[in-house]
Design goal:
With 678 residues, the protein is α/β, with parallel strands linked by helices. Helix content is 45%, strand content 14%.
Length: 678
């Protein structure tokens, strides 16, 4: 029976007109009740009845006006909130106030018409109580009946401030959610032991789990404001151990109309638990550089390149040119652009950046003003086995696009590099460092030439969450399949940033760069990959999934670096972006050496090619790789002017110098940095 009543009530909503009539009836009832209490049945004389009639009529008219102004009747009674009650207070106060003024003015002109202030005020208080408590009673009755008609899941809310209270209010009485708030969790001592919204507030300590067990709670909804508190809580692992599901919501600022749909509740992702602060950039400054420009993005179908395209599209460019050799993901980007940014002129080219004639034709057709060069091969172990492809795509591709940028008068050229270019221990990282050398030396050369020249900017950052080849999707798949989750080494650590955050910083760096800079991004605190795996297993609820260590892979480090030991940084106006003070190379020498390397790559002799790479980048020391044997072979210096240091850095040196470089720690790059395929 209760179930039938609950379902009936859930499907019935009083019309606005009905609610208005009920409110008018409560005004009349308040007047009758106060007059009855004051005069009784015997005291209703003709004068009293006439006075009461006119007072009631005036009150009905004026209050109806303000009911309509404040729309007190427009809501659903069973979902009444504090704001709805405030509307009633405001409307009744104004309605009764203006009615009193009118009636008092009339009594001055007609002394026979009397109005009792005590009686009038009593009517106001009674009317207010009736309207407020009627809504509260309807709300409580509905919640009682519906809660009895279905089995609700007890949940705790983590957070006792605005976010947590808002979540609790949204859950209570909303049939969309099958939850009952059974308690709050707080880290604030003054709140512990108090009662909030009819339930207790519990401390975030070991006793919490006994309480949760007694109340049958296996889900905690975390306020967005408390995500960091959960991350730093020593009880996080205990939540995982006891299979406690952790849910959260978007920030309150993103919830227009509050929490209304179950879809707005989501499981806490591993991204939420990483030790990093939100990144904020100057959107207006970026827009001023991109709006109305012809923008080219190479590697536009990859994870970094595609996100750059999405973010650039927001700034109303004249044209976006997408270049990538991966047909299927590029087609996906075409469909996405048509769906989301159909007003933006988009040109799509399937092309290899290492194909000079093809790229020249694209430049001739599109005449880009702004280039984001994200095209590159990135997977460390694969490039260790395919050295020539790494050189031809990463180095030659970069050189071709950079040279064409100069030829066609591009305004800015932003290259996506990697932290693996610092003290490289693998072919991929070294190839990106050689790209940096060419870009920087070309920029300095053009600056010395003077005139309107391309501003070449390089950005370095580490691993991005969810990119192609990142551990996050790999671990998710392994957990989904029942494990094991494979980690190469128990001590391996990495810096992490979301794809969106990384691309925002790329855009910001591009807008602030003047040419020749290498921008380094602050990646926050490093994360142990094994701890990352444990958290992901915990979040999944699959406690039985095991972690297996597979051993180090060729060319990989335990610790990634953002700066060479010979390098320094200086700050910019953005706290997350620094400028690296790196060794400077003479353009003519760099060009000659790099062209020799490119030609050598077409012989497909990996040893000879890597030897040449080590000559160009002396700090390149191979790890867990057959190329490590080359590190003990003395090199021949190619020039005495090949490389110089900034004035505040190390003294001038040459390629092939027996200078001492920091030896990278042996290890592995568990999550490859994402520079999309060309």
């Amino acid at each position: 029976m209760k179930k039938l009543i609950g379902e009936y009530l859930s499907n019935r909503v009083l019309s606005r007109f009905s609610i208005l009539i009920l409110d008018v009836i409560m005004i009349v009832s308040s007047c009758l009740l106060t007059y009855f209490l004051r005069y009784g049945f015997d005291g209703f004389s003709t004068n009293v009845r006439m006075e009461g009639f006119w007072i009631t009529l005036v009150l009905v008219v004026f209050n109806m006006i303000f009911f309509m102004v404040f729309r007190t009747f427009s809501g659903i009674l069973r979902f009444s909130a504090f704001t709805d009650l405030l509307k009633i207070v405001y409307s009744l106060t104004l309605g009764y106030g203006l009615s009193y003024i009118l009636l008092k003015t009339f009594s001055f002109r007609h002394p026979s018409f009397g109005i009792s202030e005590t009686l009038f005020f009593s009517t106001y208080v009674l009317n207010l109580m009736l309207m407020v408590f009627s809504r509260i009673c309807i709300k409580e009755f509905y919640e009682y009946v519906t809660h009895q008609s279905k089995a609700l899941q007890n949940v705790f809310v983590y957070g006792t401030k605005e976010g947590g209270i808002s979540i609790a209010r949204s859950l209570n009485g909303n049939p969309e959610f099958n939850y009952r708030v059974a308690g709050f969790i707080s880290d604030e001592v003054p709140m512990i032991g108090k009662t909030l919204m009819g339930v207790n507030v519990y401390a975030n300590d070991d006793r919490l789990f006994d309480v949760m067990e007694k109340k049958g709670v296996d889900t905690v909804i975390v306020s967005p404001q408390k995500i960091e508190g959960v991350m730093n809580s020593p009880l996080l692992d205990r939540f995982f151990e006891r299979n406690i599901a952790l849910l959260t919501t978007p920030p309150l600022s993103d919830l227009t109309g509050g929490l209304t749909r179950k879809s707005q509740l989501r499981e806490i992702e591993i991204e939420d638990l990483l030790p990093r602060k939100p990144i904020r950039i100057n959107m207006q400054h970026i827009a001023s550089h991109i709006e109305g420009k012809r923008v080219m993005v190479t590697g536009a179908a990859g994870s970094i390149g595609s996100e750059i395209v999405r973010q650039v599209a927001v700034f109303n460019p004249y044209t976006i040119v997408l270049v990538d050799q991966a047909e299927t993901p590029l087609h996906d980007m075409r469909l996405e652009m048509k769906e989301k940014w159909c007003e933006v002129d988009t040109q799509i080219f399937v092309a290899d950046v290492a194909n000079g004639s093809r790229m020249k034709r694209i430049f001739e057709e599109t005449r880009p003003q702004y280039i984001f060069h994200a095209a590159a091969y990135k997977h460390v172990p694969m490039m260790e086995e395919n050295v020539s492809e790494s050189i031809q795509t990463n180095v030659l591709g970069t050189k071709i696009v950079a040279d064409l940028a100069v030829e066609y008068g591009v305004e800015k050229f932003v290259m996506i590099s990697t932290d693996k270019a610092v003290n490289p221990s693998n072919v991929m990282g070294c190839s990106k460092r050689i790209c940096e050398i060419y870009i920087q030396s070309l920029a300095k050369y053009l600056q010395r030439q003077g005139g309107q020249r391309v501003q070449f900017i390089t950005t370095r950052f580490g691993n991005v969450l969810g990119s192609n080849g990142s551990v996050i999707p790999l671990f998710k798949e392994q957990i989904r399949n029942g494990g094991p989750v494979t980690v190469t080494h128990p001590e391996i650590i990495r810096y992490f940033m979301t794809i969106s955050e990384a691309c925002q910083l790329v855009l910001e760096a591009g807008s602030m760069g003047k040419g020749g800079e290498i921008y380094v991004f602050d990646m926050g605190k490093p994360v142990k990959i094994v701890d990352l795996a444990k958290k992901m297993i915990g979040l999944s609820g699959h406690k039985e999934v095991q972690i297996r260590f597979t051993g180090l892979r060729p060319g990989e480090k335990l610790y990634e670096e953002l700066l060479n030991v010979e390098e320094y940084t200086k700050p910019t106006h953005h706290e997350k972006i620094m400028i690296a003070e790196v060794r400077e190379y003479e353009y003519e020498v760099a060009k000659k050496e790099i062209e020799e390397l490119i030609q050598l790559s077409y012989e497909y002799d990996d040893m000879k090619t890597v030897r040449k790479m080590k000559e160009i980048v002396p700090e390149f020391h191979s790890l867990n790789s057959p190329y490590a044997s080359l590190d003990n072979v003395p090199f021949t210096a190619t020039s005495d002017a090949a490389a110089t240091y900034p004035s505040n850095a190390s003294p001038k040196t040459t390629w092939g110098d027996a200078a001492t470089y920091a030896t990278p720690v042996a290890g592995t790059n568990e999550a490859a940095h994402d520079a999309p395929h060309s």
